[in-house]
Automatic annotation (TrEMBL):
Positions of the UniProt region annotated as Disordered: 82-141
This protein's name: Regulator of microtubule dynamics protein 3
Recorded family membership: Belongs to the RMDN family.
Keyword tRNA-binding found: no
Gene: Rmdn3
Any Pfam family: RMD1-3
Coiled-coil stretches noted in the UniProt entry, renumbered to this chain: 35-62
GO molecular function, one term: microtubule binding
Amino acid sequence: AQAVPGAPLPADAGDGAVPSPLLRQDEQLELLERLDFVVRNIVELRKEVEELRNGLQQLAVEIVGEVRTHLEETQRVTRRRRFPFSRERSDSTGSSSIYFTASSGNANTDDGESEGGYTTANAESDYDRESERESEDEVSCDTVRTVRRDSLDLVPEDESLLVLDSTLEEGLGQLLEQADRLHSGDERDKREGFQLLLNNKLAYAGQREFLWRLARARCDVWELTEDADERRSYATEGKEELELALQKWDQSAECHQWFAILCGQVSEHESIPKRIQAGYVFKEHIDKAIALKPQDPQLYYLLGRWCYQVAHLGWLEKRTVSALFEAPPTATVQDALQNFLRVEELSPGFSKAGRVYIAKCYRDLGNASAAGLWMNLASELPGSTKEDAESEKELEEMRSV
């Protein structure tokens, strides 16, 4: 009241007279509300500016780090070319670039680099890594060496390779059957399956069916591990192995599928810009896998999850996407719903998590009756994975609401 200017007093007013306010009481309240609204907007604007500033600083750090990494990898490629050892590399003219680049230049023909100038995961010291792993896998390969030695002793030299190849092929079939069985088991079985494949890597590292199963086993132990460094190691090694495999087997749906999953697992330990970039890579390889294997429900489930996450990007993530990419990823809840329904069409009751996602999509679209129906259908399925257990928690939260 003291801040409101008063009307001038008449000349004959006494000392006890009080000036009357120029604004009525309702006008004063309206003015105060407007001032309060302005103050709130200023505070919110200040927060947004601070978030944007932090995001730009982080982006600058990431750019500097990527440039430094690129220079270091280029130097390592140069050093690797000086080794007096001839290395065999599988050429692939059909595989597209795995990394997204800022320019659309021609593919670099240097051994250590992929399209757009990014170095591949094979760039640094494959020779050193393989030398170390040979000593680690020495014990597990006694059987292979015994077969090789016996074959060389009992048959002529020109027939030894044929005997060895047939023996390895028979052993590979049994190994893959055992790996598939262990993958479908409990936590202990999955760890045993990973160790089994890892022990036989030296013998079958050049086999496509073996490599994508090894990548799948790395994904299994990644989910079972709590330590962040171990998880990063499993995902990174699997991604590097499949990156090389895709150069040779670009028409393998399984290689594309598990490479996409590993890219997503690696990105969970990265910054927002790298997670968004990994999202592009994930979508690219899932689309390729679907084109090669259109009747696989797992692929549509993965694509549905991607669509749902893109449809629910936060404010900062959307700003980062707009700043980094000319064509930001677009997807709606309706897109996610169609993919999850496609899963049920191909394999009814495929997963508990899939039905929970369908219920969430209907909830977001405002269809409460359909959401309730799919919540009940999800409750009918048992939870067999860690993801199913998390979905059960979401189901309980949805019921409470």
